[in-house]
Design brief:
Shape: globular
CATH class of the largest domain: Alpha Beta
Number of domains: 3
Distance between the termini: 28 Å
CATH architecture of the largest domain: 3-Layer(aba) Sandwich
Helix content: 40-55%
Strand content: 15-25%
Largest sheet: 5 strands, mixed
Order of helices and strands: EEHHHHHHEEEEEEHEEEEHEHHHH
Radius of gyration: 20 Å
Length: 279
């Protein structure tokens, strides 16, 4: 059967890819079979990958909100837009939770011009300039011109002492992070010049999806028991991670919910934090 992908291309429908996606979200084999059996009658010639995703997501929600939440991670990252400010905040939280100190919104004066930092991270003796490139379309690819640009910024701020994290430090390395994908040229350029890259699927074993699943660093936008306005309110309250909501459940008071609805949200959050996926 032929389907249409998000780029508008006609491709062969591979059930195995859908099965793996469901499996990587924590669904058990009997649940995977149930989801596949229920959506296949609607997977007619010409159906889009977005429509298949929606069908699978709806079926998963009937089984488990938390599994559906993991399955929706890529879409949840898109909800950290449209400008990408909350994506930068989320990346800072991710770095913090894996052992880095971080700062955001800093103005850094380079040799030639002043740069606004998305995220600055420090771990051990390394200080990193972290450039975040948020994209509103999930299949967008970051071209090689972007890592070239980032490398030029890093060069402009290198070999200068800055007062960061309460001490004098120089930038030693750089990251380029996107919620979507890199082109092959971007990867080749980054690898050659030592620019660290992080995207939805790169590096293969330490990409965004695996990093999130293995450390339970789900953005608040993953929660299927919240609507768009409720997610936005929590983001405005600087609640970016699901674990932040779980650890401070008083934040739910801002959403004007009854106790039953609060319990549903807390239950989903707890399940997301307890069960980690091993890739």
């Amino acid at each position: 059967m032929k389907i249409k992908n998000n780029a508008g291309e006609i491709v062969e429908f591979e059930i195995s890819k859908l099965e793996n996606s469901l499996r990587n979200s924590g669904a058990e084999e009997n649940s995977i079979k149930k989801v596949i059996d229920n959506i296949l009658p609607n997977c007619v010639e010409g159906v889009t990958t977005r429509e298949i995703y929606k069908l699978a997501f709806d079926e998963l929600k009937k089984i488990s909100n938390s599994i559906a939440a993991r399955y929706s991670l890529k879409k949840a990252l898109l909800e950290l837009g449209p400008a990408g400010f909350y994506f930068e905040q989320w990346i800072a939280r991710v770095f913090q939770n894996i052992g880095y100190k971080t700062e955001t919104g800093q103005l850094i004066k380079g040799h030639s011009v002043t740069h606004e930092a998305d995220v600055i991270a420090k771990k051990n003796e390394k200080t990193y300039w972290v450039e975040c490139k948020f994209r509103n379309a999930e299949d967008t690819k970051i071209s090689v011109t972007t890592p070239m640009y980032v490398l030029s910024r890093i060069k402009d701020i290198s070999e200068i002492n800055y007062n960061l994290f309460g001490t004098q430090t120089e930038f030693t390395d750089g990251w380029l992070i996107t919620n979507t994908y890199f082109t092959k040229d971007s990867v080749a350029f980054g690898e050659y010049y030592g620019l660290r890259l992080l995207s939805w699927d790169y590096p293969k074993d330490k990409n965004i999806k695996s990093l999130v699943d293995q450390n339970a660093l789900y953005p608040i936008t993953c929660l299927t028991t919240l609507d768009g306005k409720q997610k936005q309110k929590l983001l405005e309250k600087k609640c970016v991670l699901v674990k932040e909501l779980f650890n401070n459940q008083n934040l739910l008071d801002f959403l004007d919910l009854n106790e039953e609805r609060k319990s549903e949200i807390v239950k989903e959050a707890k399940e997301l934090l307890v069960i980690k996926i091993s890739e």
